Amino acid sequence: MLEEGTMAPDFSLPDQDGKERRLSEYRGKWVILYFYPKDNTSGCTKEACSMRDEKENFDGLDAVILGVSKDGASFHQKFIANHSLNFTLLSDEDHKVMEAYQAWGEKSLYGKKYMGAIRCTYVIDPDGMIRKAYKKVATATHGKDVREYLEKVRNA
């Protein structure tokens, strides 16, 4: 994981509608940048829905949610439609941004090793600094966990 207290690398990725988005366009806001393996899978759906359910609270904290996976725009559109997601999903099909954020690496399933997306989240402050890095994520409560962190740090 990238270190807390370091600047978040800028990037440009297409969103679910094919529009290029840069991290730097969100300067002045808190950014919840979360990486996940695959649209419409069990854990990823739980995590996305937990973010969706906290969206209004994040809006009140001047925070935006950006989800990143290897899936393309058409998969993201179906994921958004299937689960009424209310935030931006970005496509990192060549996993270059995942690599830059150390969210791409060796995984193991049933004894087979392969390369894939590593579930993790970065909370980036309005100046572009990584304030919190979540290496372990409880998918069903992750949105609430991030909201509680943001409330605490914003009220400190």
Main beta-sheet strand count, sense and barrel state: 5 strands, mixed
Structural class: alpha/beta
Mean of residue pLDDT values: 97
Order of helices and strands: EEEHEHEHEEEEH
Look up the CATH topology. Answer: Glutaredoxin
Globally, the shape reads: globular
Oligomeric category: single chain
CATH class: Alpha Beta
Strand order of the largest sheet: 5-4-3-8-9
Q: Give me the count of strands.
A: 9
Tell me the β content: 25-35%
Number of domains: 1
Number of helices: 4
How does CATH name the architecture?
3-Layer(aba) Sandwich
Kindly provide the radius of gyration, computed on alpha-carbon positions and rounded to a whole number of angstroms: 15 Å
Note poorly predicted spans. Answer: none
Secondary-structure blueprint:
Elements lengths: L11 E3 L5 E3 L7 E6 L6 H19 L2 E7 L3 H11 L4 E4 L4 H5 L3 E6 L2 E6 L2 E5 L5 E5 L7 H13 L2
Parallel strand pairs: 3-4, 4-5
Antiparallel strand pairs: 1-2, 3-8, 6-7, 8-9
Helix pairs in contact: 1-4
Description:
With 156 residues, the chain is of the alpha/beta class. The chain has a single domain (12-154), classed as 3-Layer(aba) Sandwich (Glutaredoxin), CATH 3.40.30. Helices cover 31% and strands 29% of the residues. It has four helices and nine strands. It has helices at 42-60, 73-83, 96-100, 142-154; strands at 12-14, 20-22, 30-35, 63-69, 88-91, 104-109, 112-117, 120-124, 130-134. The strands form three sheets. Strands 5-4-3-8-9 form a five-stranded mixed β-sheet. Strands 1-2 form a two-stranded antiparallel sheet. The chain has a two-stranded antiparallel ribbon with strand order 6-7. Strand 6 and strand 7 form a beta hairpin. Helix 1 (42-60) packs parallel to helix 4 (142-154). The longest helix has 19 residues, at 42-60. It is globular, with a radius of gyration of 15 Å. The mean pLDDT is 97.
